[in-house]
């Protein structure tokens, strides 16, 4: 594998970027990796760097970058809602650096997926969207969305140890009652302007889409509570956490991305 580090101009700032290329041959397909949250391009504990290396080993180019104000990039961090320029700059740099590309897939997790949806696919050929972020509250202490609570308690009721704690009084009754009341709130997709804007953006995209949901992730559960559960583009990994760190989840994620890169 050949790994290059360089910068990409973007609206007066410089985006730090890393391009991975196969050691031999000229790739005709590539993955544009869009980080979620304020995560740097290497990912938590270099998870995205390892993913990029495995994608490259399969013969594809991979570009990772830090958006403005994140990691090694200059400029102001305006958040994922305002990252369309960053994604466009990274995509243009990828095409310039690997001129023989015929097919580009963009992969984003969490609000990286949301950013790609808001940007209408950002000009790539295909999308892999994992656990899209739809939670509008910024308050970490805000109640979990009803869909996330329902998924949480379904898992708890399947766990004998959790049932034992409930029967022996080890669960705070008021906290349980508050959660049950929140679960009973009716679903109201129309009130979530972020989810509506994401759906509108994705509707403008005409290429293949995979929406990957980690079974143990609150963000994925909240998204599913606002989305059409019959959407044929949905794929579930039951035992996965948000970043797909489990061994089986890592392999599942890799398979999904490689399948998207080989249409």
3D architecture notes:
- Helix content is 37%, strand content 19%.
- The protein is built from 9 helices and 8 strands.
- Strands 1-2-4-3-5-6-7-8 form an 8-stranded mixed sheet, sandwiched between helices.
- Strand 7, helix 8 and strand 8 form a beta-alpha-beta unit.
- It starts with a strand and ends with a helix.
- The relative contact order is 0.14.
Strand order of the largest sheet: 1-2-4-3-5-6-7-8
What would you call the quaternary organization? single chain
Kindly provide the name of the CATH class of the largest domain. Alpha Beta
Mean pLDDT rating: 88
What are the key terms here?
263 residues; alpha/beta; Rossmann fold; 37% helix
In short:
The protein has 263 residues and is of the alpha/beta class. It contains 9 helices and 8 strands.
Topology:
Blueprint: E1 2-10, E2 13-21, E3 29-34, H1 47-57, E4 61-65, H2 84-97, E5 103-109, H3 111-118, E6 126-130, H4 146-157, H5 160-167, H6 173-183, H7 193-203, E7 209-214, H8 218-224, E8 234-237, H9 247-261
């Amino acid at each position: 594998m050949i790994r290059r580090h360089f910068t990409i101009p973007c609206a007066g700032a410089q985006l730090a970027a890393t391009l991975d290329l196969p050691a031999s041959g000229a790739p005709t397909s590539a993955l544009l990796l869009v980080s979620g949250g304020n995560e740097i391009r290497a990912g938590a504990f270099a998870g995205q760097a390892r993913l990029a290396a495995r994608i490259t080993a399969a013969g594809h180019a991979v570009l990772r970058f830090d958006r403005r104000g994140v990691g090694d990039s200059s400029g102001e961090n305006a958040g994922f809602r305002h990252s369309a320029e960053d994604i466009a700059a990274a995509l243009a740099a990828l095409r310039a650096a690997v001129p023989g590309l015929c097919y580009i897939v963009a992969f984003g997790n969490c609000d990286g997926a949301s950013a790609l949806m808001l940007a209408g696919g950002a000009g790539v050929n295909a999308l892999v969207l994992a656990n899209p972020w739809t939670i509008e509250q910024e308050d970490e202490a805000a109640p979990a969305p009803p869909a996330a609570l329902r998924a949480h308690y379904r898992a708890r009721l399947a766990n004998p140890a959790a049932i034992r704690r409930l029967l022996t009084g080890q669960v705070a009754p008021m906290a349980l009652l508050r959660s049950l009341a929140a679960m009973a709130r009716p679903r109201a997709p129309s009130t979530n302007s972020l989810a509506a804007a994401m759906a509108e953006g994705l509707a403008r995209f005409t290429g293949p889409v995979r929406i990957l949901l980690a079974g143990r992730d609150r963000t994925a559960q909240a998204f599913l509570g606002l989305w059409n559960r019959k959407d044929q583009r949905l794929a579930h990994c039951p035992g996965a956490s948000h970043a797909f760190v489990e061994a089986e989840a890592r392999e599942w994620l890799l398979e999904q991305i490689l399948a998207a890169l080989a249409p």
